[in-house]
Amino acid sequence: MAEQAYIRSTLALLRPCRSVAGSPERFLSRRLHIYPTTTPRCREISSAAAAATIEETPQVDEFPPPKPFPAPPSRIESPRSRREQTIKTAKPFSSFLTDDFQRQHDYLRISVTERCNLRCLYCMPEEGVPLSPQAHLLTSPEIFYLSSLFVSQGVTKIRLTGGEPTIRRDIVPLMESIGSLRPKGLRELCLTTNGISLHRKLNRMVEVGLTGVNLSLDTLDPFQFQIMTRRKGFEAVMKSIDRILEMNKLGAGIKLKINCVVMRGLNEREVIPFVEMGREKDIEVRFIEYMPFDGNKWSEGKMLSYQEMLNIIREKYPDLKRIQDHPNDTSKSYKVPGFLGKVGFITSMTHNFCGTCNRLRITSDGNLKVCLFGNSEVSLRDLLREDNNGNPIDEEAFEAIKKIEMDRQQGIAESDTVLGWGERERELLEVIGMAVKRKKAKHAGMGELKNMKNRPMILIGG
């Protein structure tokens, strides 16, 4: 009798919630899910309560009415409280990623392959380039480990480049593993691509954490596309662009930027059509000054400067307006009033942006480049593999490394390093730190760059 009275009183308490939560049984089941009972007897009583008929019952002294369930904590956090929490938990930025000019490098670009399915004029010779042996290239576990190391030191944005990253067989699982670093501080996971095969993998990439796409496209003419890339594929590229825009309408939130290298006598007449892509589409088109790299037959005469491109646009759109850039942006941004999209100019040759550079690069063969135009590199791959007899670190070897980390976290093994790889991790950070400290205030000027020895762009990573 006492149990029945308790059940009735519990259901009576739930009666006012009928209009909001549906039946008392449904409301009770929700409450029981949030606040699970801890004893078999309680669970038995709760189950009986959910099945009982609601009846009024007199108060029973032996079982006083239960107290109302406490309201669940609010999940809505004010912007001010978020800022306060961020400030409270903020750490000093890593000295390893801070150079002598106090530039903090929180953006890492990793080339995941040397291979590409196009042969763009400004990127590589028509015959291609000598490719590194497979054993010289970073494995997926090595890329993930280096990503983890840099994120532990303050990197918040990682961009995967190539070659063409989408032709790497395990690109999606690799992105998924890097995306798992979000709780550690990673905010953006981006991709630079030519778009040929992107549309086939885009859905899955977004699922695993893709936040931004820089898509290389230098012409809107299918015939001209074949001349500039020495390959077919214009329709596939446009399909990828349309797919991104379609997904963004559904809330995917992919930051889309189209990178267009402008070369005098080849595609400067297409500057206006590219600008007009943004009339009704949320697209940022960035015009890039033609830059010298090994094998691309650069000459100053072929380079169309930022100011010349700006003049071309203003002839048709004189009200083109400069808009505010983010502190570390590589492009100078503009907008045509009434257009949904915007345009930008990457002015590496005529107006460098070295003073706010926050980018580091890792090549597909594991070398750290602190400047795109610098020809000094340091191998992280060789140091990474020292504990593996110089061999590539495969999944099995990586699992052994992860076990060391798990043991450290559980107090079985001791290590005062961030990722728990002991002396090797300290050496890697020292090498990274020394390379960053050697970064110059700015890269060489145009006259020097054309004579400097550097990798072809395909082997650096876009």
Main sheet properties: 12 strands, mixed
Q: Percent helix among the residues?
A: 25-40%
Total strands: the figure is 12
- Mean of all residue-level pLDDT scores: 80
Helical region count? 17
Structural class: alpha/beta
Kindly estimate the percentage of residues that lie in beta strands according to DSSP: 5-15%
Straight-line N-to-C gap: 77 Å
How much is the radius of gyration in Å? 29 Å
N-to-C order of helices and strands: HHHHHEHEHEHEHHEHEHEEEEEEHHHHH
| Shape summary | globular
Give the uncertain stretches in residue-range form: 9-76
Oligomer: single chain
Spatial order of the strands forming the largest sheet: 7-8-9-6-5-4-3-2-1-10-11-12
Your description of this structure?
This protein is an alpha/beta fold. The protein has 17 helices and twelve strands. Strands 7-8-9-6-5-4-3-2-1-10-11-12 form a twelve-stranded mixed β-sheet. The longest helix has 16 residues, at 234-249. The model is unreliable at 9-76 (pLDDT under 50).
Present the secondary structure layout.
Blueprint: H1 2-14, H2 18-21, H3 24-34, H4 40-51, H5 79-89, E1 107-111, H6 140-152, E2 157-161, H7 171-179, E3 188-193, H8 198-207, E4 212-216, H9 222-229, H10 234-249, E5 255-262, H11 271-276, E6 284-289, H12 306-316, E7 321-322, E8 331-335, E9 342-346, E10 359-362, E11 367-369, E12 378-379, H13 381-384, H14 395-409, H15 422-437, H16 446-449, H17 457-460
Parallel strand pairs: 1-2, 1-10, 2-3, 3-4, 4-5, 5-6, 6-9
Antiparallel strand pairs: 7-8, 8-9, 10-11, 11-12
Helix pairs in contact: 1-4, 3-4, 8-10
